[in-house]
Amino acid sequence: MHIPDGFLDTKVWAGMSVVTAGTICYATKKVNQKLGERQIPLMGVMGAFIFAAQMINFPVAGGTSGHFLGGALAAILLGPWSAVLVMSANFIVQCLLFQDGGLTALGANIFNMGIIGCLAGYGIYKGISNILGGNKGLLIGGAVAAWCSVMLAATATSIELGISGTVPLKIVLPAMLGVHLLIGLGEAAITVMAISYVLKVRSDIINDVAKV
Question: What pLDDT digit, counting tens, does each position of 66-93 carry?
């Protein structure tokens, strides 16, 4: 889902860069207001875990492969604004060191795979977990949020490519959603496993985030 250089129209990648930069600045302000000593190492550990998990590709239909995004999981365990910073840092490192996605498309890639997953994913998770309650609500909310975050990211990427004239939207949107429907299932499975583990060993982490 990483968009390379040259795939986005100048107005699209420039506009997405502005939106992403503004969101990161706001996230930094919010995190500075609430960040405690115990959150700092947790952000580092979470960032390292997601970075490593993103390096592992798994096969999907038609010879394609996908990888874990982690935005929804990061938001569930860190809170949405801390998660935005962690995900942004990960995608910047991937772009600069591993050439995953183009430099001009960095703002769009962070927005699509990071910011959408963190903010929209967290909203979906909170809504479902509040309605269902208990650990069951946390797990179901996490699964749905993770799957939706992948589909929303694929939709945003498709729209950007369509607006840029790279691929007609009527072609790229169904193709992207079809593949990422399966990738989203892998995202949901990993997210549920991670939440289940945290609930067993450090349930206070999720309880603390619930207060954000």
Answer: 678 999 999 999 999 999 999 999 999 9
